[in-house]
Amino acid sequence: SAYVHHKEIKAAMGVKITAPGLEKTIAGSRMLVVGPDDDEEELMEEVMTDIAQLHDAVAKQPRGVWVQASTLGSLEALLEFLRTSKIPVFDINIGPVHKRDVTRASTMLEKAKEYAVMLCFDVKIDKDAQEMADELGIKVFTADIIYHLFDAFTAHQAALTEARRRELAPEAVFPCVLKMVRDAVFNKRDPIIIGIDVVEGQLRLNTPVCVVRTNATTQEREITVLGRVVSMEVNKKPVTCVKRGDTNAGVAIRIDQPNHDHLKTYGRHFDENDLIYSRITRASIDVLKTNFRDELTKETVAVVAKLKRVLGVE
Q1: Helices (H), the chain
Q2: Neighbour count for residue 248 (Cβ, 10 Å)
């Protein structure tokens, strides 16, 4: 439809402005009229203060996501939402996403890969920029609704967390204290098959276990690693995790010993009077704190503290 030309307008009305250099304007920023007595440079600085104030107001973090929006107002709304959602922001921009934006966002690949993400609200992604992001491994999320961006980001973070947990599972040793069930020794030597009760903590598959004895001559603590728990059964049904109080029937466990040159034997290296402990280390504790913090109950933390004393872990 044809445009109607007006010398002036009042109230709210959509208008089309034609002028040179409009490709450099920022949607949502103020538009000032230069009067005969105005200083053009001063007005330009005044307009730019909106952008400068927003940059100054954003609590940029050394590790965080890249945020980009179509207008100043939409960027402010998105940043406020991310602030209340406790999602850290590394840097921001306004307008279509170009390769230079991807380049700046890619610094997170070395600092914190989980934040190598661009949250783009109501903006177009340049084809070259998208290809560059795909090549570098930058995740680009676009949406016209802020909540959709949040959902996409949280789903991405959950997937990364789960993948990281699977990768670190062999190093994540949850604390437990086990007591042998009397007369429940089914195989004395590799593989050791015995019946146990979980006295404290939780026993998971692939947990390395050990016993602690005091040397009668030196009175020093001696730790004997028995191997890893590779299978568990309760009432002849396989399970992957048993916590204290889960069963009154006892748990049948199989302990494999990878080092066949120094096999441990029931009756020689341990017996039913010994408590069996998960073999935690400083490294395994750090893995739990970093990647499994949401599974660390007060009881679990207390058992970790106990095992640190028993096993002499610093």
Answers
A1: 40-57, 72-84, 99-105, 108-111, 127-136, 146-168, 282-291, 298-311
A2: 6
Pull the structure tokens for residue 145: 């609704």
Cβ-based burial of 233 (10 A; exposed 0-12, middle 13-18, buried ≥19): middle
Q: Cα 202 to the chain's mean position, in Å? A: 23
The β-bridge partners of 256 are 228
Side-chain half-sphere exposure of 155, counting CA atoms within 13 A: 8
Q: In whole angstroms, how large is the CA radius of gyration of the chain?
A: 31
Cα-based distances in Å from 231 to 117, 169, 253: 40, 15, 6
Q: Is the dihedral of CA 259, 314, 230, 289 positive or negative?
A: negative
- Given CA atoms 216, 221, 227, 233 in this order, what sign does their dihedral have? positive
Q: How far is 195 from 184, CA to CA, in rounded Å?
A: 5
Contact criterion met (CB below 8 Å) for 175 and 307: yes
What does the DSSP 8-state code read for residue 97?
A: B
154: CB partners within 8 A, 6+ apart = none
Backbone angles phi, psi at 226, to 5 degrees: -90, -30
Residues contacting 60, CB < 8 A, separation 6+? 89, 90, 91
pLDDT tens digits, the chain, 314 residues: what are they? Answer: 577 777 777 766 666 777 776 666 665 666 777 888 878 888 777 776 766 665 666 667 889 999 999 888 888 888 889 889 889 999 888 889 999 999 999 999 999 888 999 999 999 999 999 999 999 999 999 999 988 999 999 999 889 888 888 888 878 899 999 999 988 999 998 899 999 999 999 999 999 999 999 888 888 889 999 999 999 999 889 999 999 888 776 899 999 987 765 789 999 899 999 999 999 999 999 999 988 888 899 999 999 999 999 999 98
What tokens does 182 get? 């009397």
